[in-house]
Write a structure and sequence with these properties.
single chain, about 375 residues, Rossmann fold, 2 domains, 6-stranded mixed beta sheet, 3-stranded antiparallel beta sheet, rod-shaped, disordered N terminus, binds magnesium ion, coiled coil
């Protein structure tokens, strides 16, 4: 039996690990969605889970919860990471930073684990594979804070945009809202997870499946913690005076298609993208940042700033000293040359004077006309 098959069997028995994070404004139905997805009350409802008290929620710490679920016969060790919901009237920077920090911390943990000599057998890989970003069902455009946060998050995690509490919009409102949201996402260049496919490489079924899922973006979802009996069967639904909205019914919401995608057909793709692309990008960024600062630190340890200044002064002094030496040499040489020329001049003068006195002695003054020494002596040029 090939080791791969053994590994697959073992992971099937043990279950596959998968982590989903839910992010979005308070009151968009995140807690209800999680409990619907896991079919149990994984997350408790708190007083602050309503929009009026949203500000209180921003101080909550991020605590992941684990739950084992089964999807199409596959056991999944699902980790749910609920995040502090944010509102319109509070300073959201803190909540934003807390979410980004959480994502990066999971990458840091695995980075540290990978560089250990001895691996920790109990190490838990808590990297987030998929982030469901809850857009409030306003029917308008994407809000500035949603654009900003999705931008920030998409570089660290697979972001899937969803419209929470989508049953509050009519069919035509929902259609128009989905279109506007996708226009905004493309306008602001937000790299959300868009069920990527390759027309050349992928088979027709995969291409079609991905195209369908992509066309549903942002997924219109609803949740319910209530079970209603319909045709003798208990289903999760929302009961209204005018009818019943069934969570799993594809005519009522995209819940079942989203669930099927993240926990079934696209679970592996989301995991691979997280591990091979998003984590690798983070790792490279982090290591090059660390190497850069290490080199700077090393240079500054070798030559502290003060030493550097002193050394450059010393170098300048040395240079000046050498230049002075050279100048002194030139000066000496010139002085020597002047001395030599003067000697030559004196010698010439002497010989001329001798010549003059010899001529005078011979009485030949009339031939020369003017005394010889009155003519300028030009043979020495400086
Ligand atoms: N109409 C509608 N209401 C919902 C839905 N999901 C949750 N709610 C309600 O919206 C309110 C806030 O939901 P909650 O899950 O606590 O939102 P959270 O603050 O994002 O966690 C609660 O009163 C829920 O009953 C939904 O799909 N449709
Ligand atoms: Mg909540």
């Amino acid at each position: 039996m090939s080791p791969n098959i053994t590994k697959r069997r073992r992971s099937k028995a043990k279950g596959v690990g998968f982590t989903v994070m839910v992010v979005g404004a308070s009151g968009t139905g995140r807690t209800t969605f999680v409990n619907t997805l896991c079919e149990s009350e994984v997350l408790p409802h708190k007083d602050c889970d309503n929009p009026e008290t949203a500000a209180l929620e921003t101080s909550l710490a991020i605590k992941p919860v684990n739950v084992d679920i089964e999807e199409d016969g596959l056991r999944i060790n699902l980790t749910i990471v609920d995040t502090p919901g944010f509102g319109d009237n509070v300073n959201n920077d803190l909540a934003f930073q807390e979410i980004v920090n959480y994502l990066e911390r999971q990458y840091d943990d695995i980075l540290a684990e990978q560089s250990r000599i001895k691996r920790n057998p109990r190490f838990r890989d808590n990297r987030v594979h998929c982030l469901l970003y809850f857009i409030p069902p306003t029917g308008h455009y994407l809000r500035e804070i949603d654009v900003e946060l999705m931008q920030k998050l998409s570089h660290r995690v697979n972001v899937i945009p969803v419209i929470g509490r989508s049953d509050s919009l009519t069919l035509s409102e929902l259609k128009a809202f989905k279109k506007r949201v996708m226009e905004d996402i493309s306008h602001f260049d937000i790299p959300v997870y868009n069920f990527p496919y390759d027309v050349e490489e992928d088979d027709e079924d995969t291409i079609q499946e991905n195209q369908e899922l992509r066309s549903l973006l942002p997924f219109a979802i609803m949740g319910s913690e209530e079970e209603v009996e319909i045709d003798g069967e208990y289903v999760r639904a929302r009961v209204y005076p005018w009818g019943v909205a069934i969570v799993d019914d594809p005519e009522h919401s995209d819940f079942s298609r989203l669930r099927g995608a993240i926990l079934g057909t696209h679970l592996q793709d989301l995991k691979s993208l997280t591990e091979d692309v998003l984590y690798e990008t983070y790792r490279t960024e982090k290591l090059s940042r660390t190497t850069g600062s290490y080199m700077e630190a090393r240079e500054s340890t070798m030559l502290p700033a003060e030493d550097l200044a002193n050394q450059s002064v010393r170098l300048k002094e040395e240079q000046l000293r050498k230049e002075e030496e050279k100048l002194r040499e030139i000066e000496l040489r010139v002085q020597r040359e002047i001395h030599e020329k003067r000697q030559q001049l004196l010698a010439k003068e002497e010989s001329l004077r001798n010549l003059e006195s010899r001529l005078a002695a011979q009485g030949s003054d009339s031939i020369l006309g003017t005394p010889i020494l009155d003519t300028p002596v030009n043979f020495v040029n400086f």
